[in-house]
Each structure stands twice: as C-alpha cells, then as structure tokens.
Amino acid sequence: MDTRKPLDGRAVGLMLLLCLLWGLQQSVLKLVADDITPLMHIALRSGIAAVLVGLFMLWQREGLALGNGSWRPGLLVGVLFALEFLLVGQALRLTSASHTVVFLYTAPIFVALGLHFRLPAERLNGVQWCGITLAFAGIVLTFFGRSQPASASAALPAHMLWGDLLALLGGMAWGATTVVVRCSSLARVSASQTLLYQLVAAFVLLLGAAAVLGQTHINPTPVMWSALAFQSIVVSFISFLVWFWLLRHYLASQLGVFSFVTPLFGVAFGIWLLDEPLEMSFVLGALLVLAGVVLVTNHAWFQARLGRKAA
Q1: In this predicted model, what pLDDT tens digit does every residue of 116-150 receive, in sequence order?
Q2: CA of 59: how far to CAs of 47, 55, 243, in Å?
Q3: Are the CB atoms for 95 and 160 separated by under 8 Å?
Q4: What does the DSSP 8-state code read for residue 63?
Q5: Cα separation of 311 and 305, whole Å?
Q6: I need a surface site. Which of 120, 175, 261, 300 has the fewest CB within 10 A?
Q7: What angle do CA 42, 241, 121 make, to 5 degrees?
Q8: Rounded CA gap, 161 and 174, in Å?
Q9: In angstroms, rounded to a whole number, what is the distance separating the alpha carbons of residues 158 and 78?
C-alpha cells in the first residue's frame, strides 16, 4: 500500500530550499573559479561526498548489492555522471552560470524522450509532446535569437555559444543517466548505492580529466574552502538525503511541480552574485524551455485539469 501523502507546508518549504541550493551551485562554482577550477572543484566535492555517502551506508548497515549485476549499469551511470559534470565544468569556463543552469535542467526532456523508446508504459502523450516542442523552440531561440554585440567583445558570443552547447550536452548526459537507472537493475537497488557509483566515478574520472587538461590549480583561500564544504556536504550529501526522504513520504508527481524553480533560482543567483547580464532572447527562450519542462514532467496534473474542465 502506497503511504505517500500530498504535499504539506513542510514539504513545500523543504522543496523550495532544495531548489535554492541546487540553483546556487553553478554560481558558487563560477564565483571561486579563480581559486579552484570548476572541474577540480567538482572532482573534489564528488570524492568528499562519496566518503560521506559510504559512511552513511555503513551507519544504516546497508551493503553493496553486487550479486544482481548492478555493478555494470552502475559503472555506466558513473561514466555518464562524470561526463555530465565534465561538460558543466567546461561550460562554466565559457558561458554564464545563468545559461548553464537553464540548459542543464533540460534533462527531463531527454529523459522523457529516452524512456519513450525504451519503456512502453512511458510513451509520450499529447501534452508531453507539446512540452518537448516548446522546450526545443526555446533552445533554438536562445541559440539563434541573440543580438550581436559591439566589435570590442566580438569573441564573447562564440565562447558563450560553445559554453551553452556544452551545458546542453550536460543536460543530455544527465538525462541518459536517469534512463539507464530506470531501465536497468539499478532500479532495484537503493538510491544511496546508485549515488555512490556516480560519485566515485566522478571523482576518479574528473580528477584525471583535470590533470590531463591542466585544470588542477587550487588557491586555498577561506572562500574556496567554504565553497568546497558547501558543495560537498550541503549540496552533494545533505540535499540528496532530504530529497529521497521526500520521495519516500510524499507524492513524486507533486514534487515534480517544482522542476522549474531550480533554473529560476540559478538565473537569479547568476545576476545577484556574478552580475551576469541577460539578453531578451535568452529570457524568452529560457521561459519556453521551463514551460516545456513543466508540461513534460507534470503532464498528469495538466491532463486531470483538462479532463475536469471537459466534464
């Protein structure tokens, strides 16, 4: 019997806090980029968070379930997770945190498309196809609708477009990670174990990538240490525990309503902390993308509303 309940005030408050934290992380990575490169930052936070998750599993007396063959898809999702943040780390070097968070959170669109072709029960309906159309229209607008700047900064748009593309590819990698989890034996193991696969792989692979790309620079300032502690403990560990506690106690479909809030927080933090400018084409495109994501992830709610109106 499903004992999960509708959202109450506590759940709404916790979800808003989680969205705020998740929207802040890209701006924090960029804020301290002069002291620690985003790639090195993500690698170290993944390693620290992996240790914390491992200790949490020991405290919970939860062992690794390797007998069901979960290590193979676990290795794959680890590689995809590392690829996602390799792309994000490089994107933050070329484009703004605001652009990065919006393009990264297109992931639900790619999850819906992937599951449409893999699971019969996940076939897209009319509302979801409308959402996907809106989202891709927004992506096209953000890429091709921006105005050309003055010649003094002519190099900036090319760099930003490349960074935007990397962030979008990061969203695709995130979506592919979710599809593998849903369609493999990982769907039957604990969330802690799946996260551990991802964090360990991200630490090893991103640390290697940082070394190869010459992005291992660290200037150990108090701000840098504070940012690393925030990313490792609060974002990558505590927020994960809170999120899965919410999934165990509240309806996932209602939690999904908050899918559009994180990018909005991300854009707001980019403007506030980093003084990032916003072009009108990006604002309009981002709104279309977010509207598409809301339709795709919350299609059941919209269909129910439409059904009641028709009745």
Answers
A1: 888 887 788 888 899 899 999 999 888 877 655 44
A2: 19, 6, 19
A3: yes
A4: -
A5: 10
A6: 120
A7: 95
A8: 20
A9: 31
